[in-house]
Amino acid sequence: MSSIWNQARRAARMNPSIIREILKVTEKPGILSMAGGLPSAETFPVDALKAACDEVLSKNAKEALQYAASEGFGPLREWVAQRMASLGMTVSPDQVLITSGSQQGLDLVGKILCDAGAPVAVETPTYLGALQAFTPYEPNFVSLASDEQGVDPAEFARLPHDAPGTRFAYLLPNYQNPTGRVMSLERRQAVMAAAKAANVPVIEDNPYGDLWFDEPPLPALASFWPEGTIYLGSFSKVLTPGFRLGFIIAPSELYPKLLQAKQAADLHTPGFNQRVVYEVVKNGFLDEHVPLIRARYKANRDAMAEGLKKHLPPGCVWQSPKGGMFFWIRLPEGLNAMDLLPKAVDAGIAFVPGAAFYAQNPDPRTLRLSFVTLTPPQIEEGVAILGKVLRDALDNGAQPTP
Amino acid sequence: MSSIWNQARRAARMNPSIIREILKVTEKPGILSMAGGLPSAETFPVDALKAACDEVLSKNAKEALQYAASEGFGPLREWVAQRMASLGMTVSPDQVLITSGSQQGLDLVGKILCDAGAPVAVETPTYLGALQAFTPYEPNFVSLASDEQGVDPAEFARLPHDAPGTRFAYLLPNYQNPTGRVMSLERRQAVMAAAKAANVPVIEDNPYGDLWFDEPPLPALASFWPEGTIYLGSFSKVLTPGFRLGFIIAPSELYPKLLQAKQAADLHTPGFNQRVVYEVVKNGFLDEHVPLIRARYKANRDAMAEGLKKHLPPGCVWQSPKGGMFFWIRLPEGLNAMDLLPKAVDAGIAFVPGAAFYAQNPDPRTLRLSFVTLTPPQIEEGVAILGKVLRDALDNGAQPTP
């Protein structure tokens, strides 16, 4: 940076994300990409949205096009509050803040809760976008030991309590991005009891909860400790990400702070978008629509599970996810996912190396595969190519990875 | 705050804004409100937006409803870049970042340039929303002495230069909110020369520039020092605020930092909204539409100018604005705008006390009047009521204000 702009310490931390560079590499035509985190565009309810746009602009254009309340559109807040009952939560509409995607929920949480140097606890690995959202507020990330069910409850007692105490633990209980793992009921109870005992608030991020395949979702973490949990939800995976609509459910004492942060960030989420989405969902549309997404994604999950079993060389380890959008693979010793990516792209496929998802000590043997944007035959073909790339690397004498 | 959430220093700073409370008071039915900063809903191009929504969802639904680039929609970025030539700026589309309203531009600037305790210079008075946007990043506000043409150029030489040096000066050259004032060509040249000499970057906020009444806008501040200026623009005042669309034009060396901050904040501005607005503006729509807004606002400005001359008691001071949406009134000694507001609301009108717009040392004798949401007869009536409230207060023995 030249001398005009070079003074800010914050700017020095804002470096282009590695994932950005990775996705650029994988955007070549003809690539079977399992890299992106995009929902399938085939699931977007175009006709319902078109009818709703027309309805809103015919009946409430002046209100929809004017500045609006920072809290969000009242009827949509009521709809969200009622819907949370299915996850065991009792929510008042006054606790609901509509955000510009759930990514903004992460930003607002960082804006009011992260102080420079104060600890923030995250799962190992965790959602990259959350690390990016919190980073500008200069927290000190602490990685919580995690297994196939998520975070280890015993970790909470080990978190720093002296000033500056641990601000919060950021947890993704359902079909986590990137690992696809889900927390069992027993784990949820144990984690929330441990968090409460340690007095460490929880940020619960649940963008994938509606995308279950085998059994409906378990109670939200927030249901076990409502006054100590901020819940983040999203319309991106069940309707469309292009409208950028998410929501925060916050304890009453914290709501005014988040509201002020929201007003400072962008005044309010587009009123037009909120009214259109409310028009679409108000009469039970999602109860018909989401099962169609689930059926599609489940078939894709099955195709990828079968393909991986058939094509990956011995030594690769993975779980078949019970929902969501991702498989998480750990490669045999000697392989490095980042080093393999250019070879994979040359061979016609793409994935995301898992190293990007760690706050500390990245595991270079991990990678993430999305199964939702390709068709089952494409998935079979892509996974076969991945298997060949891995076997070639092993045959060419892989070096031990650190 | 209870012990669960009470650790964050940031949260302690996020207090509900005074203006929020004021606007709540003034939202009573039957009030002639001159308080809000809303554009006139009569100017929203409903039919053009409806046709564009239909066009986008008929032809490009999958792209418009999917996740999109953090930079913004390419054709809209090109359109913005070209349009800046009319303000004397030479802009590449690569310098344009589409934001969720220009309020988000302020947030992103704070996010990359404000460090805790570092000085940030603002006009006296200045846009309240900018103070709110920067505050979470804990800057040390420095108020620049300003007159009826904006900031005094001599102030730049007096700004702190030792570490932590002054991060930037935030300036509104056209029909400033709240004062309505405009910087002359000579003042622009002198200010930018002084900023450059002092090595203090400039944030130029220009939401009102298209709303000129008497003569077209002068060259942008950025045209005098492109590599030292970040320019913020908005579609809210010329099209609709309900789509939440604005933009940043940044020097190339700073663009990647702002882009990363944008991605962290909300991934991207709604792709659907960007495509719809591009569809509306791409063939010169604003060249036909904005003159209609200007003519309407100019007639309202004239009505308010006449009403104020007729109804305000001696000792009140104001300038007639050459564009924008606001008159700024300084009351006679002894009157306090905040104290008068409840009386004004009881009498059937509302304004915003000016004290909210100062970073330091608020002037309690100031108030802001919007002239764009009422009709000329309503303006005449509202200003007559204001005059009566002021005369009553003076007759009842106003106390000297500090």
Automatic annotation (TrEMBL), chains A, B:
One of its GO terms (biological process) is alpha-amino acid metabolic process. It holds the Pfam family Aminotran_1_2. Keywords: Aminotransferase, Pyridoxal phosphate, Transferase. Residues 46-384 form the Aminotransferase class I/classII large domain. One of its GO terms (molecular function) is transaminase activity. InterPro entries: Aminotransferase_I/II_large, Class-I_PLP-dep_aminotransf, PyrdxlP-dep_Trfase, PyrdxlP-dep_Trfase_major, PyrdxlP-dep_Trfase_small. CDD domains: AAT_like (cd00609). Its cofactor is pyridoxal 5'-phosphate. Homodimer. Belongs to the class-I pyridoxal-phosphate-dependent aminotransferase family. This is 2-aminoadipate aminotransferase.
